[in-house]
Design brief:
Oligomer: single chain
Shape: elongated
Largest sheet: 10 strands, mixed
Strand content: 15-25%
Number of domains: 3
Helix content: 25-40%
Number of helices: 15
Length: about 475
Amino acid sequence: MEFESVIGLEVHVQLKTKSKAFCSCPNEFGRQPNTNVCPTCLGMPGALPVLNEMVAKMAVRAGLAINCDIQNRSVFSRKNYFYPDMPKNYQITQFEFPVCLGGHMDLIQNKKRIGITRIHIEEDAGKLVHQGAEGVSGSTGSLVDLNRASVPLIEIVSEPDFRTAAEAREYFEMLHEIVMYIGVCDGNLEEGSLRCDANVSLRPVGQKEFGTRAEVKNLNSFRSVERAIQHEIKRQKLILLDGGTVVQETRHFDDATQTTHSLRGKADAHDYRYFPEPDLIPLVLSDAQIDEERQAMPELPLAKRKRYSSELGLSDFEVKVIIGDMDMNTYFEKANELLVTAKLSVTAKETAKWIVGDFNSFLKETSDDFGNTKVSPEELLSLLSLKEQGKISGKIAKDVLKQMIETGKTAKSIVDASGSTQISDEGALQSIVDDVLAANQAVVEKIKNGKTAAAGFLMGQVMKESKGRAKPDVVKDMILKSILG
C-alpha cells in the first residue's frame, strides 16, 4: 500500500522585546538562573499580569508579513497543564480568538503555497536543567530555571499542507528569515528563539480523511526539522504496513540517533480546560494601529530576493548567502546605497561577489563578522574602485583587503605604503617580458606555431616577476607582440 504524509508545523517565535510578556522583568538570555523573575511571572497570589504593548505590535507585524487577517479583537485564555517549569500551573495564551487568522507563505524552491491557520500570543514556560548535563553538578534530579517563564512568544500554526520533509524545512527556513528581517525575533536557534513542533500523520494515497498524528516537539534547527519528519514518516509507515495502529502522542527527536521516541500521550484541546483569562481584558486593535505597523514594515526577504536578482543582477547563490546573514545583508545594503549616491564605477554585482567571496572568507579566518568588521562599506568600495581604475590588480586587492581586515587601515594607505600599484606602462614592463621570453624559448616556439593559449603560462611568469603588479591585459598584448610582431 502506498501512503501519503500529511504534515503541519507549529512554530514558536520568541519575541525580541526588552521585557517579558506580562511583567517588567528583563527578557534576556544567559542571566544567572532565577534572577529575571518577579511575583507576576512566578505566579504568586495577588500578582496581576499586564500585557506588554510591544508584544501586540510584533504579533501584528508578523501577521502582516505572512498575509494574515489581523483581528481587531482577540482574547487571552488560560491553558491548564502541570509541569515543574510552569510556576502558575497554567499558561496565558490565546485560544478561540487569536490575534491573527488565515494567511499564507509561498515556498520558492518547492513552488507551493502553504496556508497559515493562525498566529496567537502566549507566554513561555521555564526551563528544566537536568543534573549530570554539561556544566551542572550532580547525577540525579533536575533543577528549574524560571528566567524564561513569561517570555513573550507568538505561535505560528500552519495548515497541514506539507507533504514532504523538504517542504517543511524550506518553510521553517523562510519563516526564520522573515521574523528576523521584520525585527520581531533574533532568530538564534541555539538559544531556542525559534522552535518548531511537527505534526506528522500518514494516510493511504487517495484517502481524504487524516490519519492519526504524532507530534515531534521542540525542533530547533533546519536539519532536525527535516530529519525528524523523515524518520517519523518511516516509523509510521512500518507500523501501518505491519497492520498496527499509530498512537496519538508527543515524541522527542534525538539528534544523536536520528530517531524519535515517545514522551507522553498527546492531549486534545479539551484536556487543557481552556477558559478566558480573568485577569486580562481583551486585546482591542484599531484599524489605525494595524495600519501603523503595515506602514512600518521593512522590505521582506522575498522582495529583496527579486530586487537583488532582477535589478542588481546577483546570482541565486549570492542572493541566498547575502540574505541568509543579517549582518552581511546590512553591510551590502549600505554599500549599495553608497554606489547609488556616489555614482561609483563599481557595480553592485562586483561588490556582492567580493562580500560573499574573499571578504566573507577572510572574516571567517579571523572569527569576525560583518557586524564588527573594521572595514567600512566606504573603504571596501574605495578598494574596489582602485581595482576598477586599474591602479591595483585583483590579486593585490585581495592582499590589501586582508590587511584592511586585520589592521583597520584604509586601502589607499596600504597601497601607498607597499608601493603595490599596478604597472601598466609598457616601458617599465618590457625588460621583465624580455627576460621571461628568453628563459622560456620552448613556449615561445609553441606560440609561433599557432598555440597562442600558451601565452597564459608566460603571463603567469611575468606576473610572478612583477610581484603581481603587472596589468594582465597589457602583459598579454606585449607577449604576443614581441613574439608574433
